[in-house]
Hints:
The chain is α/β, with parallel strands linked by helices. The protein has two domains: 4-40 and 288-418, Methioning gamme-lyase, C-terminal domain (Aspartate Aminotransferase, domain 1); 59-279, Aspartate Aminotransferase, domain 2, CATH 3.40.640.10. The chain contains twelve helices and twelve strands. The protein has helices spanning 4-7, 12-24, 26-49, 68-81, 95-106, 122-128, 158-165, 189-202, 254-264, 280-309, 335-347, 404-418, and strands spanning 85-89, 112-115, 145-148, 172-176, 207-211, 230-234, 248-252, 314-316, 327-331, 369-372, 385-389, 395-399. It has a seven-stranded mixed beta sheet, sandwiched between helices. A five-stranded antiparallel beta sheet has the order 8-9-12-11-10, covered by helices on one side. The two termini are 28 Å apart.
Amino acid sequence: MRTKIYDAIDDKELLELASQVEEETKPIFKQIDEISEINSLKVIKAFQKCNLQESHFNTSTGYGIDEPGRNKIEEIYAEIFKTEDALVRTQFISGTHALSVTLSALLRPNETMISITGSPYDTLQTVIGCGKEQSKSSLKSYGINYEQIELVNNDFDTKKIVERLQKQDVKLVEIQRSRGYAQRKSLSIEKIEKIIKEIRKVNNQVIIMVDNCYGELVEDREPTEVGADIAVGSLMKNLGAGIATSGAYIVGKKELIELCAERLTAPGIGKEIGPSLGQNTNLLKGLFFAPSVVASSLKTVVFASRFFEKQGYDVDPLYNEERTDIVQTINLGTAEGLVKFCQGIQASSPIDSNVLPEPGDMGGYEDKIIMAAGTFTEGSTIELSCDGPLREPYTAYLQGGLTYAYGKYGILKASKRLKGKEG
């Protein structure tokens, strides 16, 4: 049966294809709903166990000394991630900011960090000092050493990792769960759990940090539940659910969280200060809705994967493959195709739908970037958005979708734009 969303597209060929795809993806959608139910129970139980009260919605300004609402949010996050402590602050500007704070807090001059997932995301390369774009404020400029071990066939190179860590001279191991702008698969919790067990056989002291961006609540466990010492992510992605308007989180061992808090604020002050500035309700409501919104986002990208695969595009993951984050890649083959796709996503947005995005230079990125996101919160990638660097194979990185209906509409609009049927 045709829906109103379909009527708005007015392209018989695309509509028939979409109907076929929705029939094929029903079993996958059922699995997504099952995971969402598990994670919903995890969230509501944390709210109840931590005894969240209406009074915790109250806010603070100025120093925000020992604010009850902010403290309660961090208690809830620690419960959900099964960690000793958490740092959840609107003062974090982005996931990259939270990662930068974490690495700067945990590493000292002449110490070594290793990425065991190959090159980190573009902006983190600038933070570390391992990319082409150099900064005088990078970790490298402060004498911190960096090494990386590449993935092999989309999995950890266990032999090389174990051999390197046996030397007992590495302070921190970094694992990037999502693919970033790399042409590789994102990593499952099962794979992360296996490599952590292998690392612990040879080194009990090294700090294992997971960049958890895009991965929260996609599976029924988080990295800190399988041995990671610390995990970091953005509230403008999964856990903010499109409701949190800023912020990021760090969860993990108490001693590590204390160091991160002192880097964010000041030594000797740490977690004690930090005004919530009216954001407590948004952060809590976003977290409450997050399992459902993540499920909608996953349904959107599953639909997109099969929809574009059937049109002959190279997609990853395939619609019926295991997913560990909300990112879908579509290799469009040409710069023109990538630009048109992003413009189609923008045209389906609730805000700035009349804007035509064009590639441009952005701080922290080596290539020109095109981004499409008519979002309620600037930069929110849990809302339907798409971006990609202008380099071969001209890959669109699609993510988000607050509801499946809006996400499906965006996919159809983008596909129509690719066909040259919409200006």
